[in-house]
Write a structure and sequence with these properties.
The chain is an alpha+beta fold and 319 residues long. The chain contains six helices and twelve strands. The strands form three sheets. The protein has a five-stranded mixed sheet with strand order 3-2-1-5-8, with no helix packed on it. The chain has a five-stranded mixed sheet with strand order 4-10-9-6-7. A two-stranded antiparallel ribbon has the order 11-12. The longest helix has 32 residues, at 17-48. It starts with 16 loop residues before the first helix and ends in a 6-residue tail after the last helix. Bound molecules: copper (II) ion (CU). The site of copper (II) ion has 7 residues, from loops.
């Protein structure tokens, strides 16, 4: 199997993709064949037996019964439909029955990003990192509305619902980067709810896990915070240049007075920032909706410190 895209299909890079594709091509060519047959015969009959000049207007009597023909048009389509059913059902089972030795990744969808938690404790946002040639089980859930986890190159798509777990699995056959989409309209920034699946060799994956544990080491906290601002998707709602988005801009927030929904005010200090990240609904900024997801469990203390340092650095204190 090769990973190049075709006219009809994106690259195929999972163990189940080949089967999905062959069934698709079978359906496609069966449809093309019958389309050509039916339209071709229609055109032929229309021209051959059209009313000509001098016709009296009475219909000729044709054959009234042809048992062989009738049996053929019942039996042949039935066989084709049964083939499609069996083929499709086997493919469906294949996609639904998760191999027992699969490594497990927890996937969370929320407006408007994906987050991933790995068995070893690492976590990522909008980037799923997996080893090649290893079955991966995804346990999917949503923090808010219905999303859908869709990786075209693996031919998997699964609805992601609040209040219950959904499952999907895949085994990547090639290293590389593959697109990840949300395939269920989930609000104003649905189209930006995209990401990447990065498939690494076994050794690179181990190295990545170790690197993830050391992330931010040797970097100034504000610089590391700037990375997290992008990698943890704060960037989708908070600008740095003063433009309000779904959330207030970070420009000049730190050290200033913030008016809250109930009319009271607070000074945006370290504790306020920290609380805003872990428990966004505790103090709502006036004029904004409570759409910020909690990052409880998604960010370590070190990461929160870095984000606080970053927000401080964005035209903060008395600029
Ligand atoms: Cu979505």
């Amino acid at each position: 199997m090769d990973t190049t895209a075709t006219f009809w299909m994106p690259p195929s890079a999972s163990t189940t993709a080949g089967d999905v594709d062959s069934l698709f091509y079978f359906l496609l060519w069966v449809s093309v064949f019958f389309f050509a047959l039916i339209v071709g015969l229609s055109i032929l009959f229309i021209t051959k037996w059209r009313r000509r000049k001098g016709d009296t207007g009475r219909l000729d009597t044709g054959p009234t019964k042809n048992t062989l023909l009738e049996v053929a048009w019942i039996v042949i389509p039935t066989i084709i439909v049964v083939i499609i059913f069996v083929w499709g059902f086997r493919g469906y089972m294949n996609l639904s029955v998760i191999p027992a030795n699969a490594m497990e990744v927890k996937v969370t969808g929320q407006q408007w990003f994906w987050s991933f938690q790995y068995p070893e404790g690492a976590s990522t946002v909008n980037e799923l990192v997996v080893p090649v040639d290893t079955p991966v089980k995804l346990t999917l859930s949503s923090q808010d509305v219905i999303h859908a986890f869709y990786v075209p190159s693996f031919r998997i798509k699964r609805d992601v619902l609040p209040n219950r777990y959904q499952f999907a699995w895949f085994e990547a056959t090639h290293t590389g980067e593959y697109d990840l989409f949300c395939a269920e309209y989930c609000g104003s920034k649905h189209s930006q709810m995209t990401g990447t699946v990065r498939v690494l060799s076994g050794a690179d994956y181990k190295a990545w896990l170790e690197g993830a544990a050391l992330a931010g080491e040797g970097m100034a906290p504000a610089e590391y915070g700037g990375r997290l601002y992008e990698s943890k998707a704060c960037v989708t709602c908070h600008s740095l240049d003063g433009t309000p988005g779904n959330g207030p801009s970070f420009l000049g927030v730190f050290g200033h007075e913030v008016t809250l929904e109930d009319g009271s005010t607070v000074i945006a200090d370290e504790n306020y920032i920290r609380e805003s990240i872990l428990n966004p609904k505790a103090k709502l900024v006036a004029g904004y909706q409570a759409v910020m997801p909690t990052y409880q469990g998604l960010l370590s203390d070190g990461e929160i410190d870095a984000l606080v340092a970053f927000i401080k650095s964005v035209g903060g204190e008395g600029e």
